[in-house]
Amino acid sequence: MAIVTLTINGEQLSATDDETLLQIARQNNIELPTLCHLDGLSDVGACRLCLVEVEGSNKLAPACTTRPMEGMVVRTDSERLKKYRRMIVALLASEGNHQCSVCMVNNHCELQNLAYDVGLLYVRVPYLYPDKKIDASHESFIIDRNRCVLCTRCVRVCHEVEGAHVWDIAGRGIDCEIIADLNQPWGSSESCTSCGKCVLVCPTGALVKKGESVAEMEKHTEFLKYIVTARRKGEWISFEHSEE
Amino acid sequence: MMKPRVATVWLGGCSGCHMSFLDLDERLIDLADKIELVYSPIADIKEYPRDVDVVLVEGAIANVEHEEFAHIIRRNSRFVVSFGDCAVTGNVTAMRNGLDPDDVLHRAYVELADLTPRIPRDYPTIAELLKQARPLHEYIRVDAFIHGCPPTADQIWSAVSELLQGKTPALSHVFLRYG
Ligand code: SF4
Ligand code: SF4
Ligand code: SF4
Ligand code: FES
User: How confident is the model at residue B2 (pLDDT cuts 50, 70, 90)?
Assistant: First the structure.
């Protein structure tokens, strides 16, 4: 671990080289939208919402999986980035079926909040209105793939925290979907312990509890930090947590 | 000074956005003084007039009549507003989009009918469903958006007040809300 100095949005900051740009930004109250990132889970750079500009590189870098380097010059707030973020949220909205008014997580949804943050007035690209599978075979939970944004939080929490590894992604490109075990009904999965962690960390209404009604379900991701604290005695605790 | 000529239109929606409009309550009296209502499902006017200043359009484009009407609205109006989530995203009206329209009609008018099961296609006055219900802006240029299912009366009031002052409704976090 070494100390490095870098610049984010013109501000000189110091950090350790084992942190991510996202952690450094957040410690310094620089806001960045995220979707696939969740404190307590590994980072996979799947959603691209946290993209930042790094001087000297012609590629945009996801802040959640990029480490700082000495002298790095980073921008998080350019018009280009704002445009791309709005485009990403628009694409996510257009690729699923989102009828917020009849959704269990209406008003408690990270995709909705992102739409507000990026100022998504309407979706310019044509909506795909896909016909994706809903699986209500589990005794306690439902997965509605029409609302899934493929963030893989469910995959990671089930593998990394619960240790069951029920979920995976099947397919390629637009056909990607979340599957249980060997692509079978969730209710028939022998590896699922019914712990409910995937349901709580899912940012949208794709994973919900049975018996909840429209707008009733609030997600709780805070539990992760307690579990993580207990398992790894501090190693996984991100700075936001230890500051609290 | 001429009062702004305002219209409201009800396409493929549940009329909830119009109900919410009526929830303006006593503000409606204020509004009635300031505008001339030239077309609306709550007024008995048969044809969409020319020279409309502001029109609020509720609902998705769900059948052939909506599609034709959308183009008339655009031609005859200066400022077109997508009014509510069905107009903006397709929303609940678009939940049938993954299904065949014939299956949808059969489900609604035959399987679930209590009396005289019959598909409304047999009546020439009822417009044919389009294959999918889609947002207004996919058919015509839209100038402003009022979100929500339905939008709240306060949202409508704020947007309409600004429109009447000739401004495009400002986007504020409070008023950008889906659902
Ligand atoms: S998941 Fe979120 S964005 Fe999608 S319908 Fe539900 S509340 Fe709306
Ligand atoms: S309920 Fe628990 S074990 Fe089952 S899939 Fe979700 S996280 Fe995995
Ligand atoms: S089901 Fe939820 S948590 Fe899993 S990938 Fe889809 S949106 Fe993410
Ligand atoms: S939060 Fe960084 S890519 Fe999703």
Answer: confident
What residues of chain A lie within 8 A of the CB of B85, using their CB? 99-101
Q: Which atom of ligand 4 is nearest to the CA of A63?
A: 2
What distance in Å separates the CA atoms of residue A157 and residue A166, rounded to the nearest whole number? 10
| pLDDT value at A25 more than 90 | yes
Q: The domain spanning residue B166 has which CATH number?
A: 3.40.50.700
Q: Note whether B151 contacts A: Cβ–Cβ < 8 A.
A: no
Measured distance CA(A63)–CA(A45) in Å, rounded: 8
Handedness of CA B174, B175, B177, B179 (dihedral sign): positive
Interchain contact, B85 vs A116, CB within 8 Å: no
Which chain B residues are within 8 Å of A93, Cβ to Cβ?
89
A123: burial class by Cβ within 10 Å (0-12, 13-18, 19+)? buried
- Is the pLDDT assigned to residue A85 strictly greater than 80? yes
Q: What is the pTM of this model?
A: 0.90
- The reply to whether B108 falls in a domain is no
Say which CATH topology domain A95-236 has.
Alpha-Beta Plaits (3.30.70)
Tell me the residue range of the domain where B141 lies.
5-95+129-175
pLDDT of residue A171: 96
**Ligand nearest A104 Cα, by number?**
1
Nearest ligand 2 atom, CA A140 = 1
| CATH number of A3-77, picked from 1.10.460.10, 3.40.50.720, 3.10.20.740, 3.30.470.20 | 3.10.20.740
Q: Which residues in A lie closer than 8 A to residue B138 (C-beta atoms)?
A: 126-127
Domain count, chain B: 1
Positive or negative torsion for Cα B50, B144, A105, B132: positive
Location of structure tokens 């380097």: A69
Nearest atom of ligand 1 to the alpha carbon of A109: 2
Domain segments of chain A as ranges: 3-77, 95-236
- Per residue in A212-239, pLDDT (tens digit) is 888 778 888 887 766 655 454 445 444 4
Nearest residue in chain B measured CA to CA from A214: B179
Q: Which bound ligand lies closest to the C-alpha atom of A98? A: 1
Q: What is the C-alpha to C-alpha distance for residues B100 and A6, in angstroms, rounded to an integer?
A: 56
Beta carbons of A127 and B173 less than 8 Å apart? no
